[in-house]
């Protein structure tokens, strides 16, 4: 079946957002009297939305009495500091250009807040995708690894599931694609290592953006 669309995870797949996420959670931790986390710790905490980032970074997680306050501080700080160091990974823009030339549509499904997903897509990827086809965490749509947001984008694109591929950097993305019943391509340049992805049943793993087209049918 011809590939008509590639739907991407955002953080760790298209954009390197790690430093801005780390700065934001550490700001929230400081505000609430807790020690900061290292960049390597934050790398393992991200990938499931800001709620789980706060939960994983805080002692006692969601049971911590300051969890809601810390999460609120994290959301507020990140909303105004999400572009300090964030940028596309090397080779991403060329890959999107190559997909565009082959008339393969692109979109985003992320656990990042929906408003920020749309804003970042407009800033970095406006030449390649419609921001309205880019979905983040929002009310009424179950977050990944539930397939709801991915299936919603596929429906909005007007394609069949076997005409679409989901690409992401984490075990959550592998599970999301499986739950949606579509093929997943895992990327090793993001927040999880190749070994981690293999341990979590990744099927296809690519190490550079330019390798993506090798696994598409067109």
From TrEMBL:
Keywords: Hydrolase
Keyword Disulfide bond on entry: no
Gene3D superfamilies: HAD superfamily/HAD-like (3.40.50.1000), Putative phosphatase, domain 2 (1.10.150.240)
Signal peptide annotation: none
EC number: 3.1.3.18
UniProt record, GO biological process: DNA repair
Lineage top rank: taxon: Bacteria
InterPro entries found in the cross-reference section: HAD-like_hydrolase_sf, HAD-like_sf, HAD-SF_hydro_IA, HAD_2, HAD_sf, PGP-like_dom2
Reaction catalysed by this enzyme: 2-phosphoglycolate + H2O = glycolate + phosphate
Gene Ontology cellular component annotations, sorted alphabetically: cytosol
Statement: the UniProt record of this protein carries the keyword NAD: no
GO function terms (MF aspect): phosphoglycolate phosphatase activity
Family to which this protein belongs: Belongs to the HAD-like hydrolase superfamily. CbbY/CbbZ/Gph/YieH family.
Protein name (record): phosphoglycolate phosphatase
């Amino acid at each position: 079946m011809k590939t008509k669309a590639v739907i991407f995870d955002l953080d760790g797949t298209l954009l390197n957002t790690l430093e801005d996420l780390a700065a934001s959670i550490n700001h929230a931790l400081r505000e609430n009297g807790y020690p900061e986390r290292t960049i390597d710790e934050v790398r393992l905490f991200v990938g499931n939305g800001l709620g789980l980032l706060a939960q994983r970074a805080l002692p006692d997680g969601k049971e911590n009495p300051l969890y809601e306050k810390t999460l609120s501080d994290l959301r507020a700080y990140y909303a105004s500091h999400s572009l300090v160091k964030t940028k596309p990974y090397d080779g991403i823009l060329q890959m999107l250009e190559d997909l565009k030339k082959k008339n393969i549509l692109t979109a985003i499904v992320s656990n990042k807040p929906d408003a920020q997903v749309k804003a970042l897509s407009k800033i970095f990827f406006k030449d390649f995708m419609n921001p309205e086809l880019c979905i983040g965490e929002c009310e009424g749509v179950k977050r990944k690894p539930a397939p709801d947001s991915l299936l919603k984008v596929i429906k909005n694109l007007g394609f069949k599931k076997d005409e679409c591929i989901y690409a992401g950097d984490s075990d959550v993305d592998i599970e999301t694609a499986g739950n949606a019943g579509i093929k997943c391509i895992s990327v090793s340049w993001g927040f999880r290592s190749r070994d981690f992805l293999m341990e979590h049943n990744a099927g296809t793993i690519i190490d550079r953006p330019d390798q993506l087209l090798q696994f598409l049918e067109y």
